[in-house]
Amino acid sequence: MHPETLLVSASRPAREVDAPVNDPVHFTSTFVGWEPDAAGPRRLYGRMSNPTWDGPEQLLAALEGVEDPAGRPALLFSSGMAAISAALHLAPNGGRIVAPQHAYQGGLSLLDSLQQTGRLAVERVDVTDTEAVTAAVAGASILWLESPTNPMLEVADLAALTEAAHAAGALVVVDNTFATPLVQRPLELGADVVVHSVTKYLAGHSDVVLGAAVTDDAGLHRQLHAHRTLHGAIAGPMEAFLALRGMRTLALRLERSQANAAELARRLDAARREGTLPVAAVTYPGLPDHPQHALAAAQMQGGFGSVLTVVMEGAAAADAVVQNLRHWVPATSLGGVESLVERRRRFDGEPATVPAGLLRLSVGIEHVDDLWEDLQAGMGATAVG
Questions:
Q1: What are the pLDDT digits (tens) for 171-228?
Q2: CB 381 within 8 A of CB 328
Q3: Which of 182, 273, 288, 307 shows a CA-CA span of 20 to 30 A to 204?
Q4: In whole angstroms, what is the distance from residue 66 CA to residue 60 CA?
Q5: Main-chain phi, psi angles of 230, to 5 degrees
Q6: Average pLDDT rounded to a whole number, residues 79-104
Q7: Is 175 a catalytic residue?
Q8: C-alpha pair distances (Å), 264 with each of 128, 216, 374, 377
Q9: What are phi and psi of 237, to 5 degrees?
Q10: Do residues 123 and 98 make contact, with C-beta atoms less than 8 angstroms apart?
Q11: pLDDT for 384
């Protein structure tokens, strides 16, 4: 089944007369039961299970290529950070994590915190340098990867790095939030665990906070499930319902946002070369001059994503652009139907290698010409101001 069809048709109630087309939301904290020796899995209590989780968990597992998505579904978490925390806790006490120099800031902050308390050791690497990562992963517990990275949009060779990590005895966890399973499927490239901020493209409407972890390994699945249960990092039923509803339109939203992103990247890069806009750099994996464009074209088989960056001449110029935009929403997220813009280096702890004037653009589904005219006006105002 094609992913576009799977998104719409899978994880629905049984076809019975007068059955609902969509699963209801189950608001309950516990479940009826009294058989102490009942065979098979049981729901028992709301921290362990909820029927509203079943649909999105099975659908996401199927999208990521899990062989038995019903028997080994994805695991919803209360947030992307909760899913990241659960995956990092697969490492033993004192274990070493090899992580990207550039990645989701929340994840990097958590790694810093775990290192400061002595729970884990962390080594940061340039994930585009396959040889350097291969050397670093010797003796590591987990190789943590993002591709493309946030916000620098670097592309890692997931298959090669996964092979090297496994040869060294390390697990591989890939944050697939930027790409989604429609663009790349890291489990099929050898990764052990995939994590998502469901808040972003999967739910897609900037109205829920939710995370997920996916694995096709039974032992890792049990560990992640136990962590979620014991730490209480569970999804609310309403959030799970909204996430599944959002996933139904993922293919259409992503098709439009990727087309918009590719066209805006092309226009911005042309304006940079022609000197018609005060842009110092444009980064998008779909541009031919992206350093890992060939790798991205081979690895990201469903497109190049919907995030691009532009670098202005300094923080003040970038802030002025954000203030002058009208259609682009200044907000720190991505993956919604609306186009979002933010200057990244305003956050504490952002790596110094991120340019102060870098703007991250999460491209939405609006008309591309309206988005382009807004960028032209915002950047033009900067040029004369």
A1: 999 999 999 999 999 999 999 999 999 999 999 999 999 999 999 999 999 999 999 9
A2: no
A3: 288
A4: 9
A5: -75, -35
A6: 98
A7: yes
A8: 25, 37, 11, 14
A9: -60, -35
A10: yes
A11: 45
CA angle 189, 72, 86 (to 5 degrees): 75
Check 72, 124, 200, 344 and give the catalytic one: 200
Helix/strand/coil percentages in the chain, nearest 5: 40, 15, 50
Q: What is the pTM of this model?
A: 0.95
- Tokens of residue 61, six digits: 């597992």
CA distance 267 to 167: 43
Q: Is 129 a catalytic residue?
A: no
Q: How many CB atoms lie within 10 A of CB 90?
A: 20
104 is known as an active-site residue = yes
CA–CA separation, 264 and 325 (whole Å)? 15
**Catalytic-role residue among 175, 192, 216, 374:** 175
> Encoding tokens for residue 220?
């890792």
> Which of these is catalytic: 104, 157, 192, 374?
104
Q: Terminus-to-terminus CA distance in the chain, angstroms?
A: 54
Give CA–CA dist 39/247, Å, rounded. 33
Cβ atoms within 10 A of the Cβ of 68, count? 12
**Distance, CA of 176 to CA of 156 (rounded, Å):** 12
Residue 343 pairs in a beta bridge with 359
For 162-304, list the strands marked E by DSSP.
Answer: 171-175, 193-197, 211-214, 281-283
Q: Which of 12, 43, 47, 119 is catalytic?
A: 47
Interatomic CA distance for residues 8 and 347, integer angstroms? 38
The per-residue pLDDT for range 213-267, each reduced to its tens digit, is: 999 999 999 999 999 999 999 999 999 999 999 999 999 999 999 999 999 999 9
CA distances from 55 to 33, 43, 51, 364 (A): 23, 15, 8, 26
Q: Facing residues of 193 across strands?
A: 173
In which order are the strands placed within the sheet that holds 358-362? 281-283, 307-311, 358-362, 340-343, 329-330
Is 54 one of the catalytic residues? Answer: no
Tokens of 292: 């890992």
Tokens of 187: 């489990």
